[in-house]
Amino acid sequence: MTATLTGPAGRMQIARGLIALRERCGLTQAQVAERAGVSKATVSRYEMWQDRARIRWATVKALADACDASAGERDALVKVAKSQTDGWWVGNSAVPEWMDPLVSFEHEAAYEHVYANTVVPGLLQTRLYALAIHQAREMRSSNGEIERMVDARIQRQEILRRDPTLHLWVVLDEAVLRRDVGGRAVMAEQMAHLHEMAQTPNVDIQVLPFTAGAHAAGTGHFVVLGRDDERNPLNSMAVVYIEMRRRGLYLDEAEDVRSYKLTFDYLRSQAADPSASLRLLAKARQELSP
């Protein structure tokens, strides 16, 4: 079989790799198309990872060869095209289609950096906190549908226990600790969970206190996901996810990614350090105690 349903993360790796190869040899899409014996539209489609059409590994090979890729570079991209399989979230009605790329990227990423200014990020939510969030957001959904959404969110958290691990670094605005979601008991459990997770080897949590004043973000919730491979740059990936109402915006242009990475670095410097943040989480939990 020469066509695969390559997931968003794999499609991005192929797209960015083909673009890098084409730009390195100074060719236009039309020139690559002529060399590879395909249409310019095909070249454009393979360089657009958002396209959901099937990926043909033979076409990937032809495009890489047309860009004078080395055997290693070509084989790496072909391997991605051949190896992609559907994850548990694909076709799962409890996972919105616009979140499919995010979950796919999480499974391919080595790190995830999150700035959260209203609610606890999904990877760190307790079940009852997630239930309260979904009940508030999904006013027209049945209880059964909401339960399935919560189940999917909890299943998504398994990524934090994989091997090799995903390194999660979160900057929480203090507003997240103060917003009452689900009542005092739910919030107390959630604060205790954050305190516990912040002490695991692959999770870092920093709190951005109100006293920090104006800060670098100036925007809402955003996520930076990536994987860096200096030995094989074509194996690297980086994408920014911006959460919106019932849709997600994904940015993968190098300048956009650099901008959000820099913003996150500034937020980390403005937030309380991990030790002080642990104390703030413990204090928030104590204030919620009966």
Q: Gist?
A:
The chain has twelve helices and eight strands. With 290 residues, the chain is an alpha/beta fold. The strands form two sheets. The chain has a six-stranded mixed β-sheet, with helices on both faces. A two-stranded antiparallel sheet has the order 1-2.
Characteristic terms for this protein:
single chain; 290 residues; alpha/beta; 6-stranded mixed sheet; two-stranded antiparallel ribbon; disordered N terminus
3D structure, described in words:
It is built from 12 helices and 8 strands. The protein has helices spanning 8-24, 29-36, 40-46, 57-66, 71-83, 100-108, 127-137, 143-156, 174-178, 184-197, 254-270, 274-287, and strands spanning 3-4, 55-56, 111-116, 167-173, 203-208, 222-227, 237-244, 247-251. The longest helix has 17 residues, at 8-24. The protein is elongated and about 70 Å long. The N and C termini lie far apart (62 Å). The model is unreliable at 1-5 (pLDDT under 50).
